[in-house]
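re: that chain from earlier
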Amino acid sequence: MGEAEHGDVPNGGKPDAAAVPAKQSGAHRWLHILGAVVVAIVLPVAVAGIVAGQLGAHAVFLGLLLGVLGAKLGGTRRMLYLAPAAGVAVGLGALTAYDWWWVALLAVTGAVVGAGIGFGWLPPLLTLAFAATFAAPTQSGTDALISGIMAALGVGYGIVIAHRFGTAPVTEGDRLPVKVAAVVALVFGAALGAAAALGVALGWTEPYWVPEPIIILALYIVTGKRDRIRGKAIGTAAGAAAALPVAILAPSVWVTSAIATVAFIAALTQANRYWLMYGLYTFAVVLALASPGQVAVEAEHRGFEILAGIAILVIGLAVAHAIGDRLQRHSPQPELATSNQSS
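^ sequence. v structure.
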């Protein structure tokens, strides 16, 4: 009655407890992901929409993204300190979008962000530039105040989510000498201000697409991915060009939406080839945002705006390097040479 009766049946015929979760791990993983998306994004945005309407929902969603991103870049504690500032940036961005006061706001915000490299806070401070750039326009100071408050709450919720997934309280960024930090502040502020001014001066309805690549690529630069500048430029041009055949064929809205969805999903699978990922993303965005029969116009605007922003950033980097080299030659401080080489 011992092992012979059970033959080759493992565990005496009893089910292997370790095997059951293994078979169900795939389904459980997707259920966990779906639950996390509902709890982390859909639920708070829906509640904000009920309380404060579409404006509140947009502000909470933006704040949530900034909270998670900022916590990953600088740590949960540092981002908690920046949450009120992010709310103020969203409120001011909403109130001034998209006039010359918005241009001034982005220039000042860019200078503050750039100065952060002097004390190791530049990465999380980039969220303030995102906040001021992508805030939804409002018609009154009251709406802007509500938008700022809801965004700050969204940032706090994003920090909680980041903490739940084990994000460190503090992540140190690069610290550069005061003179170098001053140069970075001036150049970054001028670049964001110039990008915003270009969009406003030309009367574009969505001028935030010009400073967008500057902020995104600055994020890549501080995380050691400078090569993304070229990839973003190539991807933008390729994505805008790929939209032209769609404009010529002029398919129905449903077909265009389906193509945009497929392109966006395909972009998510190309993380290792940034130029291709961004090309597919640009193609999807152009199709998604274009009014019926206006795909070619949307492609032209979007491509020019993003490429203009990249050009402004490249010029800014060249100026910063030239000034940095000059400081290196005229300053006896060895850290200037080190910081310039590392940049």
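Residues 19-74 form the longest helix (56 residues).
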